[in-house]
Amino acid sequence: MAGNTLKDAFVDEVRDMYNAEKQLLKALPRMAKAATSDELRAALESHLEETQGQVARLEKVFELLDEKPRGKHCAGMAGIIEEGSDLLQEDFEGAVMDACIIAAGQRAEHYEMAAYGTSIAWAEALGLTEVARLLTETLEEEKAADVKLSAMAEAGINDAATADDSDDEMDEDDDDTDQPATTAPARVGALARSAKRRAKG
Prior knowledge:
mainly alpha; Ferritin
């Protein structure tokens, strides 16, 4: 039965994060396989290894809390992963698919950064110094992964993903219909530009 103290809420949050990391262990290989950029694929595979370490770190946290390593279904991460899975089923190709994978990856990273940030604050308030240190180590890895994804997007993937937009617009001008056409690459190009603005912000 759930308690009503900050310590109870903290343990509940750790269980939520534990499940979130376990979900990512299954999702990251699918994202890496779908990536067309070698650099992006390598980054996702590297983060998969980091995530395995983060799971082990959370198990150490459970040990310090004298709790069994048990997860609680993380609906937030499940929703983010479901969105990412839906994108992988689309017919996007090349840099467009890579831009979508980066956007999905950064959603997951930002969710984790928020969760770990809150958990660190709670651990410090509870006087759990070693627990806070372990969680901070993971938070720094999540921040670094997010920065790496932003760098790859800004270094060329976003530009490559929007390169076809002008060609699509020219094709639309040649169309005899008066109805405006919105192509999938154009929609994703807008998403990529929006993601790039958020990353810079």
